[in-house]
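Pinned message: reference record for Alpha/beta hydrolase
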Amino acid sequence: MDAPQVQLVRTSDGGSLRVFSYGSGPGAVFAAGSLTRTLLYGRFASRLSATMPVHVYDRRGRGGSSPQPPDYSMDTEVNDLKAVLDATGSRVVLGHSYGGGIALEAALRLPVSRVGVYDPAVNIDGCLPTQTLPELVAAAAKGDHVGAVMVFSREMDPVLARVPLPDPAARALVWAASRLTREGHSWKEMVPSLAHEITLLDGTHAAADRYAGIRVPLLLLAGAHSPWYFRTIASGLAASLPGSTSMVIPRAGHSALNHPSEKILGLFRRFLQQPA
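Predicted structure (tokens):
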């Protein structure tokens, strides 16, 4: 995998975003999910860059970008995405999980040409599991990133959700991951942003037909092994957007873009190569 070019892009409110560019020139801008290091999408972006350049940016509160502002909202995310689109001359938006929700919002608000998402996290009719949000927010406020990740994982991660571990054992497992894995090392930095993002999702119970105003080509993918609510979201969106390309990917989980299969890459490539 070739090393990306790195640049800082200024935002409309005076912040900065670190952007990793796989290829040069206009192409696609990729918005990352919550609690996920941007560089984990490097393999996906690098391989897709043979079709068109892909620019992946650190969203606020992670990596080399500015912290989330006190008045953080979806407006922050859309304005930041627009800054990267403008800086790279791009008009295509891709996104995963929370970043997929940002991409769908951009399709409603920005002059983009097409949007492709995998497991987009939009709280259609309140389907996302946010019941333990107060515990997550409380842990984040105390600086207990291990506790916050444990709460989040039990709600959002199908692996930990299936394991009936008592709290001490689950905490020990998450603590070990936070010390022994590169991904875990970044949790402490990202947990405050995670709390704000889940709070925002919890307060938004949109109907699927809210997105019926999207007028650009849309690729809508969900993993067969992802948590069930991502398939619910995808089916609701597809019903409201009959012109979209929608598919459930067999044997794919929520983190499938970190190690993308040829099936997933092929779907994105064909979508990006289609005439506008």
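Pinned by admin. Summary line: The longest strand covers residues 16-22.
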